[in-house]
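Per your request, structure below.
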């Protein structure tokens, strides 16, 4: 299965960029949202901020004009604002929820229209091991990431009979700008607790996202697929 219209949010860098490259290599028509930066070569870059429904709507219109209705949606855009609960401001909490969870809702709602008309679609929500494992200093982030599980499972129940699957991919510690920003002692602590004894590369997440979006995975929906070197023990 190739040549599908694929849209990935936050595809200019990190895991999103690797996912875009993976679908490009499989021969799909790939578009990525770029709030800043550039799309990878071969992908269509569309400016969008997932916290702004109007910019999401405009981005979808551009993608539909260029590639047709979105058949594979990967909600990847995400941020962290880590701090302990007592220091966490309401803004730290709502900003993270607005990007990671409501942002996914905005793109999902827009994508579902085209998928319903096509009577097929693949939705992949990029969560985190932290969503089900918990993490001190990440109450906002963990809440946003576990919320994606309820979103995928509800979507599965709502649209599963229309040829649409919705799954969550939950990476562990992946080398990217997000994790490079953590201090060395935090990185060492994570490394100690990962059975695989190493961090993941972005491509290892990307390959799983492509597979869960493939025909081979047509009967998998509402699942949480860990890509975490055993850290969450499958949750
Ligand atoms: P990066 O910080 O490297 O990249 C984040 C991406 O999200 C960037 O493209 C960024 O765009 C985009 N983004 C952030 N806010 C918005 C917004 N409001 N609108 C549109 N795009 C936005 O992170 P990663 O690649 O590491 O993470 C990607 C996803 O994977 C995230 O959801 C993250 O939570 C998740 N994840 C990451 C893990 C890791 O270890 N790295 C582990 C588990 C999950 P811009 O460049 O403009 O800022």
């Amino acid at each position: 299965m190739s040549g599908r219209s694929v849209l990935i949010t936050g595809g200019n860098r990190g895991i999103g960029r690797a996912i875009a490259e993976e679908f490009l290599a499989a021969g799909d028509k790939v578009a990525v949202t770029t709030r800043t930066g550039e799309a990878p070569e071969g992908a269509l870059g569309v400016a969008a901020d997932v916290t702004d429904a109007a910019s999401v709507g405009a981005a979808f219109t551009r993608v539909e004009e260029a590639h047709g209705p979105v058949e594979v949606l990967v909600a990847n855009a995400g941020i962290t604002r880590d701090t302990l609960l007592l220091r966490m401001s309401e803004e730290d909490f709502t900003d993270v929820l607005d990007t990671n969870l409501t942002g996914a809702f905005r793109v999902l709602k827009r994508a579902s229209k085209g998928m319903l008309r096509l009577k097929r679609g693949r939705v992949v929500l990029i969560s985190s091991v932290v969503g089900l494992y918990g993490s001190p200093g990440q109450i906002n982030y963990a809440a946003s990431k576990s919320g994606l599980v309820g979103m995928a499972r509800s979507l599965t129940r709502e649209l599963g009979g229309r040829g649409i699957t919705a799954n969550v991919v939950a990476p562990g510690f992946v080398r990217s700008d997000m994790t490079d920003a953590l201090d060395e002692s935090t990185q060492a602590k994570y490394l100690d607790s990962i059975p695989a004894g190493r961090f993941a590369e972005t491509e290892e997440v990307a390959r799983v996202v492509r597979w869960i979006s493939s025909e081979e995975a047509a009967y998998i929906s509402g699942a949480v697929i860990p890509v975490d070197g055993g850290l969450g023990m499958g949750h």
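Helices lie at 14-25, 53-67, 90-118, 129-133, 139-159, 177-180, 184-193, 202-212.

Regards,
D.
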